[in-house]
TrEMBL record:
It comes from Streptomyces cynarae. The keyword Transmembrane helix does not apply. Residues 2-186 form the Clp R domain. The lineage of its organism: Bacteria, Bacillati, Actinomycetota, Actinomycetes, Kitasatosporales. It comes from the Bacteria. Keywords: Repeat. This is Peptidase. SUPFAM superfamilies: Double Clp-N motif. InterPro entries: Clp_N_dom_sf, Clp_R_N. Pfam families: Clp_N.
Amino acid sequence: MFERFTQDARAVVIGAVAHCERAGEQRVDEAHLLLALLEREAGRAAFALTALGLTGRRDVVERDLAEARRRGGLTRADADALAGLGIDLTEIVSRVEEAHGQGALAGTHAGAVRRSGRRPFTRGAKDVLTRSLRAAVAHGDRHIGDEHLLLALTARPGVPSEVLADHGATFAAVEDLLWGGSGRAKAG
């Protein structure tokens, strides 16, 4: 599938691996893809992120992603669902960190580097790549661009889409901006 990626999309994937390595993590996940997208200054995704006002908010997005990682990767919707059952996620995180140190729920997937030295992608990151292919096909594109990666990130439930939505980058907003809402496709 990588042969169908444009130069911009390839740069995002390579950037995600670099983010993973710099963070000392063993597996490339959706958050790494989002951070790599935010780093880009060219391409359709960069245009969309700039138009939606996310370019100057990289630090805030990184902080939001780190906070979610601290919660063990649970979204606010997950926390709300647990609260509905009488479970206070903030209290659980506090107690775990009290016993095991700050960031104990973050997990780094130690030992996952393949013998080739390449960092494997999590199931979620692979799903984003698959959804980007579906988004490209749905829009009649032969190649997968960085805009399809962005659209796939907004379509997949989880922390990155929640963080993007918090900053106005929803599936509908990205699609309307890039394709004018015509022929609304589903990247999932």
